Amino acid sequence: MKNRIRQLRTDRGWTQAALADLLDVSRQTVNALETGRYDPSLPLAFRLARVLGQPLEAIFYDEHHATPPAL
């Protein structure tokens, strides 16, 4: 699964640490999410959507079956 977490985070001027604080996870978790080394649990995915103010479909996409969502 691909995501736009890094783009959405940097668009807001947030560091990985700032997003981690908002999500109540470690900075390393945010880094792993952004680089695709870790797929979030459903509760974490919903927290990401809420914190970033985007629907899940605007954050996550399957690179093999869909084009990246437009922002």
Poorly predicted runs are: none
Task: Give the strand content.
Answer: 5-15%
Please work out how many helical segments DSSP would assign. Answer: 5
Number of strands: 2
Mean pLDDT: 93
Biggest sheet strand line-up: 1-2
Q: In the CATH hierarchy, what is the superfamily?
A: lambda repressor-like DNA-binding domains
Largest sheet: 2 strands, antiparallel
Helical percent range? 40-55%
- H/E series: EHHHHHE
Measured between the Cα atoms of the first and last residue, the distance is 18 Å
What sort of overall outline do the alpha carbons produce when their principal axes are compared? globular
What is the count of structural domains?
1
Rg of Cα set: 11 Å
What's the architecture, going by CATH? Orthogonal Bundle
Q: Could you explain the architecture of this structure?
A:
- Residues 5-59 form the HTH cro/C1-type domain.
- It comes from Plantactinospora siamensis.
- By secondary structure, the protein is mainly α.
- It has helices at residues 5-11, 16-23, 27-34, 42-52, 56-59, and strands at 2-3, 60-61.
- The protein has one domain: 434 Repressor (Amino-terminal Domain) (Orthogonal Bundle).
- Helix content is 54%, strand content 6%.
- The longest helix has 11 residues, at 42-52.
Describe, in short, the structure shown.
By secondary structure, the chain is mainly alpha-helical. The chain is built from five helices and two strands. Strands 1-2 form a two-stranded antiparallel sheet.
Q: Could you list some keywords that capture this structure?
A:
mainly alpha, 434 Repressor (Amino-terminal Domain), globular, Lambda_DNA-bd_dom_sf
